[in-house]
Amino acid sequence: MMLARLGEEDPRSLGGYTVLAVIGQDGMGRVYLGERAAGAPPVAIKTVRPGLQDDPEFRMRFAREARACERLSGAGTPRYRGADPDGRPPWLAVDYIHAPPLSVLVREAGPLPPPGAMSLVRELARILPRVHRLGLVHRDLKPGNVLVARQGPVIIDFGLLLDLASPTDPLDTDRRGTPGYAAPEHCFRRPVSEAADVYALGAILAFVLRGALPVEGPAVRRRRDGRPDITGLSAEAYELVADCMALDPADRPAPATVVARADALSRAATPGVARPGAFTWLPPAAQDVLRAYEEIRLPEARPATHGPAAATVPLPRPEPPAPTKVMEPRASSTPAGRPATPRPSPPPPPPPHASPRQLAPPPLAGARWSARLPGRTYYAAPVLHRGLAVVAALDGTVRAFDARTGEVAWSRKLDGRVECPPATGGDTLIVSRADRWVCALHTSTGKELWRRPTGNTAPSTPVVAGDRVLLGDREGLVRALDAEAGDLLWTARTGDRAVHGAPAVHDGRVFVTSWDGSVYALDARDGTRLWEAPTGGELHGGPVVSGGTVHVGSRARVVCAFRASDGRQESQVPTYGPVRARPVAYGGEIWVGCLRGGLYGLGAGHGTAVRRLALGAAVHSEAAVDRHSVYAGTSDGRVHRLRRDGGPAHPWYDAGAPVEAGLRTGYGLLFVVGTDCRLHAVDLGADTTRRVAARPPAPEPAP
Q1: What is the mean pLDDT of residues 417-434?
Q2: Where are stretches of biased composition, namely Pro residues (predicted)?
């Protein structure tokens, strides 16, 4: 990714956003990096260059793109943040995605192996029906317009969008897509339909498998029989590519068919390939490219200067993060919207043979102790059990700290990656490994007690319920294992999508949530399915049961409550954004956050929203609740605290990096993990008068 410093001719603000840098430009105009307020999620702001601002056709096209982005907002496309097609210049703001374009990913990491390529195309094909249901055709789908983010691919740039509701579109320009990826009907001025995007899917699949696309002139080379002349693919992959790239749009498969065929091929190549989440199907080299983009430190706002524009330079890899600290009161912001006082310099690197305890940074104000975790990016919640705080890192290291002092009790390196929190019960710690094993360690020593394979797919978050271990997997299966020996007791199928969150057990029933959007109730004795209830959106976090009611948060922007006995829906509370986190039950209340910064307190009995608060940044994981307070971590690195008996939420602790793992309270401490691989144990009695004033988020509209 290339960024350029702002030049003399570039604006310093657009529509209330501070402009930070130039992301890129094309024939229509420039795209800027901006932010609403210091630390707020960055946005990409697209503009129209001066020579086209007075052209009615370009203004109309820009307005159409803005309307489409607003209608599509999210679920495989960037979240819409605002636009002014009549401004000078016209501008359109969407969420900035910290991810490389597919073209860059393949250039830097090489072609994807067949499972990864099929998984990518499968996820792209799942996005297209949402675009097409709105009567829209992208028309310029290509590797440069696909960002590969951690949660999966994201389609961008709807500048050549076709609205099928306007068959006589006056903006049907001569530019008709990109050579090789543009369907033949573009080039020959024939009617264009949704099948044009399917054609581009086939070309993208060929590109990611080969690293290049054989293009002659405006199109891909063809054989005498009219099929694309693309070599170096397996027979099965070529058939899918050729069918998608058929000359006749009527011969191309529907996106749902592409999903099914790509899914079957991905599993045939590598059984048990995980469904959502790019890190589950990208090879290591591509994962490194994605991490490098995630770790880029974006430029900070500065007062406007009017010197000559600097040359475009690649962004450097970030320096080690600055030490975490309790949030100090900040002075008034600079005109550009950033605090005047910079963070302290990062600590020097540890000695080559430092022990785990030596790797811990010194205690910080408000934090009783902090520790550095192995690996590069951490996103599983810590586990508190019998005086220990246990964390499992992506590199397979499981480490137990004395919860009160931060001393390392034991550390064990497992063979496979650990991508979800462990579970505890008695003397046993259950760890799901991404290499298709689940193992049990002794809580006090880390000694391995048993390990069991989980078949052809990676297991997900486990839970220990009495003498059983229950866990789902990436193919929709749920397993019950004997907690003492690891023997398989039963297996049950939900849908055909991943079960990510930990199951919940209540009154002889097991409740699980699936990425297919449904909640399933199983008999705890043998796994028999008792009922299924849809929510309308993917379910990432697990369920929670309170008062005979099952609560789940859905990416369909709702929190649903179902009667545990028969699955009858009792309530559905709208949220401001998709819900990824597991709800938390405490004292007759349900607390859950959403990806647009909303935090909700619900009545467990009636399911209605009794508290709604705007935190200003995304809430990715579950909150922590104790007798007096609720704590929620956000993607800007802050932990917010509010009293359960009323009042607003206040930023209370700065973790120094996005908080994407669940928070935990215990032993008078709040345990927080940031994506910079640091674990913080913060005194719950830390002086809350030192909290910083909350950033002023936009008021949350009524759902």
Answers
A1: 89
A2: 341-364
